[in-house]
């Protein structure tokens, strides 16, 4: 089964003379249980692909599938049970006046789960937060702890696919590795499929097996992380991104 399939995707904003083509003819495939990275500078169109997948951008054409099911213009409850998103800024994505217990409890209730108390405890344990964090509020948490809560919320509906939109860019470098290791472990434990967006090749190299490089709305090169580490790139823009990340690309830390 294919996790995510995108073929000849075009996404635009506005009409006629105000139209902006944000994504042009993008194609990619992520196998079930795979981990794929979209890399490029701000404005390259990578996050727009995630927004089109989740139904947040209605102006698109081409073909998209999730778990072998073609996507139309609207997404149903089944889609949001299977596909969840982790956003860039964990503080902005959490309600400031809701405790961790409320954040997770509401998500579980929305998706029809009943054994909510037990599930909240399990989710917190799965993301490396103990029971002491359950009744804290976002302002009482560090950036890394907030992102762990956001990941727990994304895991609550028991999805098969996580869309990761720059999940570590708002965090300190020392905390980034912890979150990337957590995401890597969760993917293996739960056989999750990841589509990850980042401007940082080092971050993508930590968690993904294949990447697509985007520039000005187009995918200019697709390659494996092994090819990236060996600097077996073809496109000048990929070489530019690689040179700016040189020395920072490392494999996952499994210690």
Which keywords apply here?
alpha/beta; four-stranded antiparallel sheet; 10 strands; globular; six-stranded mixed sheet; Rossmann fold
Strand and helix layout:
Elements: E1 2-13, E2 20-31, E3 35-39, H1 46-53, E4 60-66, E5 69-70, H2 77-82, E6 83-86, H3 90-93, H4 100-110, H5 116-126, H6 143-155, E7 161-165, H7 173-190, E8 193-198, H8 201-207, E9 210-215, E10 218-224, H9 225-229, H10 236-245
Parallel strand pairs: 3-8, 3-9, 6-7, 7-8
Antiparallel strand pairs: 1-2, 1-4, 4-5, 9-10
Whole-number count of domains: 1
> How confident overall, as mean pLDDT?
92
What would CATH call the class?
Alpha Beta
Helix- and strand-based class?
alpha/beta
CATH topology label? Rossmann fold
Count of distinct strands: 10
Gross CATH architecture: 3-Layer(aba) Sandwich
Structural account:
The protein is α/β, with parallel strands linked by helices. It has one domain: Rossmann fold (3-Layer(aba) Sandwich), CATH 3.40.50. Helix content is 36%, strand content 26%. It is built from 10 helices and 10 strands.
Compose a concise summary of this entry.
The protein is of the alpha/beta class and 255 residues long. The protein is built from ten helices and ten strands.
């Amino acid at each position: 089964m294919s996790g995510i399939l995108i073929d000849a995707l075009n996404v635009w904003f506005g009409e006629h003379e105000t139209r902006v083509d944000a994504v042009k003819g993008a194609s990619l495939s992520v196998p079930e249980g795979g981990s794929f990275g979209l890399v490029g500078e701000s404005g390259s169109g990578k996050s727009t692909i995630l927004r089109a997948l989740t139904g947040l951008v209605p102006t698109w054409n081409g073909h998209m599938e999730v778990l072998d099911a073609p996507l139309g213009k609207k997404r149903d409850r089944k889609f949001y049970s299977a596909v969840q998103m982790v956003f860039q800024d964990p503080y902005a994505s959490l309600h400031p006046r809701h405790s961790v217990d409320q954040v997770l409890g509401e998500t579980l209730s929305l998706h029809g789960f009943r054994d909510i108390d037990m599930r909240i405890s399990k989710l917190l344990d799965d993301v490396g937060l103990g029971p002491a964090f359950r009744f804290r509020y976002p302002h009482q948490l560090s950036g890394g702890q907030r992102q762990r809560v956001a990941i727990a919320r994304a895991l609550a509906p028991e999805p098969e696919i996580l869309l990761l939109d720059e999940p570590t860019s708002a965090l300190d470098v020392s905390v980034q590795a912890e979150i990337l290791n957590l995401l890597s472990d969760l993917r293996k434990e739960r056989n999750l499929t990841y589509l990850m967006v980042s401007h940082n090749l080092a971050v993508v190299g930590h968690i993904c097996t294949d990447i697509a490089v985007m520039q000005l709305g187009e995918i200019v090169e697709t390659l494996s992380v092994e090819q990236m580490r060996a600097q077996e790139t073809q496109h000048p823009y990929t070489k530019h991104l690689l040179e700016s990340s040189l020395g920072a690309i490392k494999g996952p830390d499994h210690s």
